Amino acid sequence: MQPYPYVITISSEKGGVGKTTLACNLAVYLRALRESLPVTILSFDNHFTIDRMFALEGQKLHGTVREMLEGQPAGALAHTGQYGVGYIPSSTAERLNPLLERFRDPRTLAGLLGESGLPGVVIIDTRPDLNALTRNALFAADQVLVPVKDMASMENCKNIIALAEQRGMDRNALALIPCLVDERIKYDGEFRDQKTLLRSFAAERGYRCLDTFISKSPKVESLTTNPDGKIYPILTHARGTEVYGQFREIALDLLRVLDAVPEPRASFLYLPRAEEREPPEMADSLARREGLADHCLICGALLAEHAEGRGFYYETSDRARRGFLHTSCFVDLLCAALYGMTRDSQGYGIARLVAGEQARKLVTVISPAMVNGSHRVDFSQFDAEGELLFHREVAMDRGGEDEAEKGINDRLFLILNEALPVRGAGKGPWLAVHPVDPEHPEAVLEEERYRAVHHVQSLIHGRAGQF
Q1: Are residues 406 and 454 located together in one domain of the fold?
Q2: Phi then psi for 395, rounded to 5 degrees?
């Protein structure tokens, strides 16, 4: 039977929180505590810490992370390194960035790992951002660990947690770890120290924290910055420190979780044409949920915190972006863009009623373009048969001092700059906005309804020259 890896993703949108130190040393500890367990580590960051720690002198390399992302089996690219840990050599950002377009679908990396031939545990160290590779690493993970060291890194957790929830991850599969805790810092009152304070803020936000934390340690810092130019593991070079025991507890906790998992995620979601498995529609639906924007493009509010009123689903014609819009936001945008009316305008109520009724019956297509040096946006509305029923062109650079017009432009730019950056001359992708049931908006992502969305979009695509 082909092996499938159990994937641990280390992620944080904030740099300097000890993410790579956590990833590398967990790999060493897991391998040492269970010698029969294969452990492989790879990184999407470009600092080459993993290579410095695990590469053997004179070792002949036969591939890097780039080749893995291009489709070569990861099992054939993994090199046995120091401390018995397998590693896939790193690549520079310049070599990885051109591949990001391939990973717009958040399932892509999971599929590669599912077919990788890598047994045991795979640890993925990600960049301090949520680019396409980080999103793929989160989607592929059986366990996500998020190191936090201060309130800034705590605040940055919300985007990672929102993504994990969108793709249906069990909350217990994602945990925060207070890192680089300076135990000399003490507070008066209920929150006695840094770790207690961070855990309290995490609990208020509904985030799970591991029981163990990682202390700030000059000894550990010296393992990565020293005259030798090498990187040493805590297991072998920091015995007697608190951090030594803390990493051991974290690794033991992960092994307990691993033992309780009947089979890794890759084995039942991502093996193509697997027999006696869930149909591919299940993975497709999860991927669509994972790919959703975490906020309304018009008002910017996080949908996890303001989920009510999501009456419209949008998707770009190239399927690169998708998400939900609040009904009030989208109807206000239409009313302002098509009729030049805001809440202070006379007749606004009637105009908003008309715009809302039309939007709830039809598919609205927004198509930006640059014509003769002028930015414009075409608004078109189609019925379920793809027939064009309404069309209006709106100039984006009308100028003037009118605050209402400035507000219209602001709202248009908010949605277009993120979903459809205005291209040069001619037309690029367009944005289709579909009405959905605000009580059950996610139902549009289910297979039958999603096919209906793409049916009408294919009809619209065939008539794209009309708008």
Answers
A1: yes
A2: -80, 135
- Tokens describing residue 178: 């207070």
Name the residue among 365, 366, 368 with its Cα closest to residue 425: 368
Q: What is the residue range of 398's domain?
A: 292-466
Count other Cβ atoms within 10 Å, centred on residue 402: 11
Contact 76, 117 (CB under 8 A): yes
Structure tokens, 91: 């690549």
pLDDT tens for each residue of 207-238: 888 888 899 988 988 898 877 778 899 999 99
Please tell me the chain's helix, strand, coil percentages from 3-state DSSP, rounded to the nearest 5: 45, 20, 40
Helix, strand or coil for residue 385? coil
Separation of alpha carbons 435 and 361, rounded Å:
7
What DSSP string describes 147-181? Answer: EE-SHHHHHHHHHHHHHHHHTT--GGGEEEEE-SB
Task: Report the alpha-carbon distance of residue 324 to residue 195 in Å, rounded.
Answer: 37
Q: Which of 4, 43, 38 is nearest to 20 (CA)?
A: 43
Distance CA 80, CA 118 (A): 12
Q: Are residues 303 and 383 in the same domain?
A: yes
Let me know whether 260 and 325 are in one domain.
no
Question: What is the per-residue pLDDT across 275-307, written as a single tens digit (0 to 9) for each?
Answer: 444 444 555 566 667 668 888 888 888 888 888
Distances in Å between the Cα of 134 and the Cα atoms of 49, 141, 189 are 18, 11, 39
